[in-house]
Specification:
Layout: H1 2-18, E1 26-30, H2 76-83, E2 103-105, H3 116-121, H4 134-148, H5 153-159, E3 162-166, H6 171-179, H7 184-208, E4 212-216, H8 225-230, H9 246-269, E5 275-279, H10 281-290, E6 299-303, E7 305-306, E8 327-328, E9 335-337, H11 345-357, E10 361-362
Parallel strand pairs: 1-2, 1-3, 3-4, 4-5, 6-9
Antiparallel strand pairs: 5-10, 7-8
Protein name: Esterase
Family: Belongs to the 'GDSL' lipolytic enzyme family.
Signal peptide: 1-21
Length: 367
């Protein structure tokens, strides 16, 4: 009887703290710099000296030092882990990563969906450093599985109560050719193959036992100060009503349209027991640019960690955050954009909350 009372008290405390009784035993994350919690900084010397995102003031808002996260504090999966009372996800490549039974992060800066051979085939071999594409990250996860749950039926049972976050993927697949000067029409032609590979990766994880899977779309890249600065146009027709570059956002929208269709197809195929959630990063970030005050912010397109007020967006590609000549604002909690291409701790908190509640995630993570 005493044990029952103690258990009920525990459940009530969890409900009060996290807002619901729903729980996961672990979170497993895959993706690029939007999600990386330090996989590129796992050597004995920490982050490599050439990695600007491994230098101060990255990490200062929450951790007080760089952690390999490409922001001033935490990323989306950090907030999801905290909500469910789980430890922050250790980078899967970290030496002595600890107890991966409660979660692990395979995401790594620079990750693409496609393998290097894809870019080489399109003449982009010199335009990309491919570091842990989706297929490789799934291999890293499979290497961890014996430490998590053994094999077979044990893993199926364990992953039934785990949350998987697959992405975003695609951003770097498009950055490489676009920054390399490839015409937009050709880059658009890559989209179906990239989306098919994402869907294939999600399918593989389902076969391994994943049941609750969040699949984020790509961000509205035409709203990021990096793109707005590099591809500045004298024609007003190149911009939409919120000041973002139409052609780049159209690319993102095309990717997301196909991805939503692919997720819906997978959901129909695995209707019994599998719960796929499409997270609409595009819609939320566009709304945050349009009306930052609605999300507790003040600045939509202005960079926090930038180049001393240079240009319209406080961004200079030759004085990026972490480089000489850059400096960070004193109030990052008011900014959407941290460094010109990544978001702030405050923005990621808002996104995580929207994924949980279903505001920009269909269905929401919380049932």
């Amino acid at each position: 009887m005493l044990r029952a009372v103690v258990f009920i008290v525990f459940l009530l405390s969890v409900t009060r703290r996290y807002g619901c009784s729903q729980s996961y035993n672990a979170i497993y994350s895959f993706g690029d710099s939007i999600a990386d919690t330090g996989n590129l900084c796992t050597g004995s010397g920490g982050c490599p000296s050439w990695l600007t995102t491994g230098q101060p003031p990255y990490g200062n808002t929450h951790f007080g030092h760089p952690t390999g996260r490409c922001t001033d504090g935490r990323v989306i999966v950090d907030f999801l882990a905290d909500h469910f009372g789980l430890p922050l996800l250790p980078p899967s490549k970290a030496i002595g990563a600890g107890d991966v039974k409660k979660g692990a992060n395979m995401a790594i800066i620079g990750a693409t969906t496609m393998d290097f051979e894809f870019f080489q085939k399109h003449g982009l071999g010199n335009s990309i450093w491919n570091n842990g594409p989706l297929g490789t990250q799934i291999q890293w996860f499979q290497q961890l599985m014996p430490s998590i749950c053994g094999t077979g039926a044990e893993c199926q049972s364990y992953f039934n109560n785990s949350l998987f976050v697959v992405g975003e993927f695609g951003g770097n697949d498009y950055n490489a050719p676009l920054f390399g000067g490839t015409a937009m029409a050709e880059v658009r032609s890559y989209v179906p193959e990239i989306v098919d590979r994402i869907a294939s990766g999600v399918e593989t994880l389902i076969e391994l036992g994943a049941v609750d899977v969040v699949v984020p779309g790509v961000l509205p890249i035409g709203c990021f100060p990096l793109y707005l600065t590099l591809y500045q146009s004298s024609s007003k027709d190149d911009y939409d009503e919120i000041g973002c570059l139409k052609s780049f956002n159209n690319l993102s929208s095309y990717h997301n349209e196909l991805l939503k269709q692919a997720v819906a197809g997978l959901q129909s195929k695995h209707a019994a027991g599998v719960r796929l959630m499409y997270a609409d990063l595009y819609a939320q970030v566009a709304d945050m640019v349009r009306s930052p005050e609605t999300f507790g912010l003040k600045y939509g397109l202005k960079v926090c960690c930038g180049a001393g007020g240079q240009g319209s967006y406080n961004y200079n590609n030759n004085a990026r955050c972490g480089m000489s000549g850059s400096s960070a604002c004193g109030d990052p909690e008011k900014y959407l954009v941290w460094d010109g291409i990544h978001l702030t701790d405050a923005a990621y908190r808002s996104i995580a909350d929207a994924w949980l509640k279903g505001t920009y995630c269909s269905p929401g993570i919380l049932r």
